[in-house]
Each structure stands twice: as C-alpha cells, then as structure tokens.
Design goal:
Elements (H helix, E strand, L loop, with lengths): L3 E3 L3 E5 L5 H7 L3 H6 L8 H13 L3 E8 L4 E9 L8 E6 L8 H14 L6 E7 L3 H9 L3 E8 L2 E9 L3
Antiparallel strand pairs: 1-2, 2-3, 3-4, 4-5, 6-8, 7-8
Length: 166
C-alpha cells in the first residue's frame, strides 16, 4: 500500500524496500539506538530485510515522512497494534538534522486525523522511555496524557494515552 497523506510541508507514504538507505541511516542514529533500540542493521541488505518484515506484518503501519520541497525522507511515523496493548501505539523518529522543526508534530497530527480516526480506534497509546524528554513533550503537545509506568529490563517506560472520542 502506498497511501499518501499530505500536509503543507510534508508527504507521508508507506515504507518500501527502496527506502533501505534511509532506514539504514535512521536506525543507526544515536537517538534511535538510545530510545528505540539497536536493530543491528549495518547494510542495505539488512535494511531491506527489516523493511520487508514490517511490510509483511498487517499489524504494523510505517509511514515515511518526506519534505515536499526536497522529496527527501526525513523520518518515520509508526502505528503498531501489539498483542500486549489494548490500542495501537503511535511512534515517530526523525533524522537528527530535522528535529525541532515541527515536522514530528505536523506528521503525527496529520496521521492521527487521517488514519487512526478513519480506522475507528477509540484511543491511541504511545510508549516512551522516561528519559526521552523530546518525545514526552511532543506527546503532551499532541494531547496524550500520562497513564502508567512500567519497568522493562531496567528501563522506565511511560505509557501515554489519547482518547479520540472524548
């Protein structure tokens, strides 16, 4: 599926194996490794396999964020329905050069309005590490509210929730 959502500055489209060079770069950034985890992807081939696993999972939606002005991928919006949670999990990641430009806010807002609501989910969750201050600020700006704390392998994980029909 190559669904495209557009905002004033951005285009969001489904991830493709052709995004392997971008994914290789993104998953090896310091922030991805620190806050999301090392995926041990160190080649284009490994990135293609990683992307194909995402594409093959019907519970995962990964949208590549592109700047319209440059047709360049700069980040991801993810929407994951995991078995151990009662609602889909919104996630986001940007290349370091594109942080603090409002891109994650713009892309997340557009995605939630267009996709999450259209799929009829009464709520969306977001999980972040307690030390990921940038993500916490963005989630709160998007209207998410802190719900709970979970310790997982020594990491403090915060669960935020956004009720869509409230």
């Amino acid at each position: 599926m190559s669904l495209i959502l557009q905002t004033e500055r951005l285009r969001l489209r489904s991830i493709q194996t052709a995004d392997s060079a971008f994914i290789l770069k993104l998953v090896n950034t310091e922030e991805w490794i620190r806050f999301i985890g090392d995926r041990n992807i160190h080649s284009i081939e490994q990135a293609e396999i990683y992307i194909q696993k995402i594409i093959d999972n019907p519970s995962f939606e990964y949208m590549v964020i592109e700047l319209k002005s440059m047709d360049t991928p700069v980040g991801l919006i993810t929407f994951l329905k995991r078995e151990d949670y009662d609602a889909p999990d919104l996630g986001f990641a940007l290349l370091p050069a594109y942080v603090k430009l409002g891109i994650a806010t713009e892309a997340s807002s557009a995605f939630m309005k267009k996709m999450a609501v259209a799929k009829g989910h009464p709520k969306i969750i977001a999980i972040t590490r307690a030390d990921n201050v940038k993500s916490i600020k963005l989630l709160e700006k998007l209207g998410f509210v802190f719900e709970s704390l979970k310790i997982n392998q020594g990491d403090k994980l915060l669960k935020y929730v956004l009720h869509l029909n409230a």
